[in-house]
Automatic annotation (TrEMBL), chain A:
Membrane-spanning intervals of the chain: 102-121
Organism of this sequence: Aromatoleum toluvorans
Name under which the protein is recorded: Cytochrome c-type biogenesis protein
Highest taxon above the source species: Bacteria
Domain CcmH/CycL/Ccl2/NrfF N-terminal: 7-146
Function: Possible subunit of a heme lyase.
Automatic annotation (TrEMBL), chain B:
Keyword Disulfide bond: yes
Superkingdom in the source lineage: Bacteria
Positions of the Thioredoxin domain: 33-192
Transmembrane stretches, start-end: none
Primary localization class, coarse: other
CDD domains (UniProt xref): TlpA_like_DsbE (cd03010)
Compartments, record wording: Cell envelope
Protein name per its UniProtKB record: Redoxin family protein
PANTHER family: THIOL:DISULFIDE INTERCHANGE PROTEIN DSBE
Pfam hit, one: Redoxin
UniProt keyword list: Cytochrome c-type biogenesis, Disulfide bond, Redox-active center
Length: 158, 198
């Protein structure tokens, strides 16, 4: 009984998985276009959801706007321009490549190049380091240590 | 180099600095692309004067505020006394944008709203709210039933306030309720600056 309850509890999130908003018109092609574009647009109310996933009133309004503009014959780029003019680049999940987003786009690449360069430099300088040769006395001590015949040393080295 | 062991400390401090700065940023405050652009045009019915409409055109030549509000907006209750006080001192006219008064109310079923009576319901609700919350600070309120004007202004939360200059250009957008502090420190200086410019 307990196990059954546990299984039911574990399945609960699956049952509760949020779907997309139900289509409004009965034109599947139009609805497809609306949903496809809506997935790339951020809802400004619940900022980590797209307007396709969110059911915030603003997301519903914006989906309706997208639909209306498609019906009026506008294409994807025109609808995106319309929304960006009102809400800024923030509505786009894929920010445009321009001056203010330069670091955003190139930053990870720069970090990678810098990190790889530093690693290469470190590895190369490590190869150049000549291994420290042991003196005869040190050799003898090392051998004694390995044999297990060494006395506890008072010296701090080794 | 002796101080090499300090390098991770400096990296940590730099990172902590960035993160600390990031903590102070408010992700809810999305900069508006409309700053410096002409206020989008609209002409919608007024709240109080039933036979009149209002448009940004009517405000040309004056510095004014466009304040987005609704009776269902909780933060508006905190903002309202500030607006009433501001209207009393009247440095600038405040135009209200009553945003989705009926449909925006989460307590109502938006689909059950009857379009034929929506305007009348909105007027009745909004007026009653104004009476209950200390009076009407607005020179006039534009009734934006379906939120279309709101979309043109990039409204994504209520309240929001736009500062518009004599030429009808949006100069500043305040997101969230206006507090006595933000009024004194930000809004009033900006208003004074614009009025001097005329």
């Amino acid at each position: 009984m307990r196990r059954l309850a546990l299984v039911a509890a574990l399945l609960l999130p699956v049952a509760g998985h949020a779907g997309e908003a139900a289509p409004v018109t009965d034109d599947p092609v139009l609805e497809e276009r609306v949903m496809r574009l809506s997935h790339d647009l951020r809802c400004l109310v619940c900022q980590n959801q797209s307007i396709a996933e969110s059911n915030a009133p603003l997301a519903v309004d914006l989906r309706n706007q997208v639909r209306e503009q498609f019906q009026a014959g506008k294409d994807e780029a025109a609808v995106v321009d319309y929304l960006v003019a009102r809400y800024g680049d923030f509505v786009l999940y894929l920010p445009p490549f321009k001056g203010t987003t330069l670091l955003l786009w190139l930053g990870p690449g720069l970090l990678l190049v810098a990190g790889a360069g530093w690693l290469a430099w470190r590895l190369r300088s490590r190869v150049r380091e000549t291994p420290h040769a042991l003196s005869a006395e040190e050799h003898a001590r090392a051998a004694a240590l390995l044999d297990g015949t060494a006395k506890p040393s008072r010296e701090s080295r080794l | 180099m002796k101080a090499k062991f300090l390098i991770p400390l400096f990296i940590f401090l730099a990172l902590a600095g960035f993160l600390g700065y990031g903590l102070k940023l408010n992700p809810r405050e999305v900069p508006s692309p409309l700053i410096g652009k002409a206020a989008p045009a609209f002409r919608v019915p007024q709240l109080q004067a039933e036979d009149k409409t209002i448009s940004p055109e009517d405000m040309k030549g004056r510095v004014w505020l466009l304040n987005v509000w609704a009776s269902w907006c909780v933060s508006c209750r905190y903002e309202h006394p500030v607006l009433v006080q501001l209207a009393r001192n009247s440095p600038v006219p405040i135009v209200g944008l009553n945003y989705k008064e009926v449909r925006g109310d989460g307590a109502l079923d938006a689909k059950a709203v009857d379009p034929a009576t929506e305007l009348a319901t909105a007027r009745q609700r909004a007026r009653q709210w104004l009476v209950e919350h200390g009076g009407d600070p607005y020179m006039a309120s534009a009734v934006d039933l379906d939120g279309r004007v709101g979309i043109d202004y990039g409204v994504y939360g209520v309240p929001e306030t736009f500062l518009i200059d004599q030429q009808g250009v949006i100069r500043y957008k305040h997101i969230g309720p206006i507090t006595p502090e933000s009024l004194r420190d930000v809004l009033l200086p900006k208003i004074a600056e614009l009025q001097r410019a005329s």
